[in-house]
Amino acid sequence: MPDHPTDDAHLAVGAVGIETIDNPMTHLQTHIEEKPFQDVVCDNKSSSATLKPHTNGIPFECTVCNKKFTRSESLCDHLRAQTGEKPYECTVCNKKFTRSESLRDHLRAHTGEKPFECTVCNKKFARSSILHEHLRTHSGEKPFECTVCNKGFAQSSNLRAHLRTHTGDKPFECIVCNRKFADSSTLRAHLRTHTGDKTCECTVCNKEFADRSNLRAHLRTHTGDKPFECTVCNKEFAYSSNLRAHLRTHTGDKPFECTVCNKEFADRSTLRAHLRTHTGDKPFECTVCNKKFTWSKSLRNHLRTHTGDKPFECIVCNKEFAYSSNLRAHLRTHTGEKPFECTVCNKEFADSSTLRAHLRTHTGDKPFECTVCNKKFARSSCVHDHLRTHSGEKPFECTVRIRIHTEEKSFECTVCNKKFARSGTLRVHLRNHTGENVNRK
């Protein structure tokens, strides 16, 4: 065997301090290329007595579950996972870890050190694994594929969470209300609904949110950004949940069913609101008159009765309305459209509310009752008119009698130009021109 080099020779070769090496003699053999140890399996030689194991003969086996490993260190880590042993403790917060590498990564949370830098955008990370995942945002690589639907993911954790959408597994449980979730991040966001903690603040209006995803969605109310587009009709949405609900208008899918009446709905929020019709719950209260409502939209509409706000304007005659539904019905007075047809007599109507009221003439249903004398009516407007017989209120002043006194005739026949003081008289007169029976009721 050749003579071993002196300490001076060693320093000249490797420039490594002898005192820093656990086994200097073994280390020196890496420089002088001496390989005195031979593998009995393949006859390969090595400078170290710790030969690298063969992949086809994995020598390190767990005695608990029989899982095999190529490295003794991996077996040790695995055994600690079985026993729960955590020998590596953080000197700052006393948190314990199974592996020394995990402790090193954790310490950077205290020091703020981020030694791993993206070569594309220079963003820095505390862990190399997070850098690898980040790099896929640049490359578009999605190496983790769902075996059920073949959807690809950039991170294995996202794939695991996605698989639960197929299995229905929800392993993360809230310790307060026992509600279960498919992923830990959703559970963390949910816990803030109990604590009231809102850590994410909007830089535009300073509104605070419990989680970052809600903040990102909120920011679109400022930017007007609608990144989610329907592949069928190209309609755009600010929220992915709205797009999913919209897509069901194309497919007709209604996966949310009421447990009381079995009525089905396209989205969960509509089901929740519907359930209030069974429970009678009215959580939305007017701050002006304390009237309560089942729906938040109904409260918003009601508030306009106090403010007088009429944000919906007709593009034909510029008439303004407090409700979009009223505007839509009004527009049909210009177009003549009557899309709502009675299934009993085929009579057509310009709005659904008039059709509903009309249907009661067939069914005899009178759902509106006077609170004074219990008389029932088919229309809510009839109840309001009837209540004035009890109150004595007379809010409407007769303008017809005034015309009789002044001999004003503002209603003119478009056929013969004859004028009338009353619209009803004009309608009767017009039948003389059309040949319609003037005596019909």
UniProtKB/TrEMBL annotation:
SMART domains: ZnF_C2H2. One of its GO terms (biological process) is regulation of transcription by RNA polymerase II. GO terms for molecular function: zinc ion binding. InterPro entries: Zinc_finger_trans_reg (IPR051061), Znf_C2H2_jaz (IPR022755), Znf_C2H2_sf (IPR036236), Znf_C2H2_type (IPR013087). Residues 60-87, 88-115, 116-143, 144-171, 172-199, 200-227, 228-255, 256-283, 284-311, 312-339, 340-367, 368-395, 411-438 form the C2H2-type domain. Keywords: Metal-binding, Nucleus, Repeat, Transcription, Transcription regulation, Zinc, Zinc-finger. Gene3D superfamilies: Classic Zinc Finger. It is found in: Nucleus. It comes from the Eukaryota. The keyword Nucleus applies. One of its GO terms (cellular component) is nucleus. PANTHER family: C2H2-TYPE DOMAIN-CONTAINING PROTEIN, ZINC FINGER PROTEIN. This is Zinc finger protein 26. It comes from Frankliniella fusca.
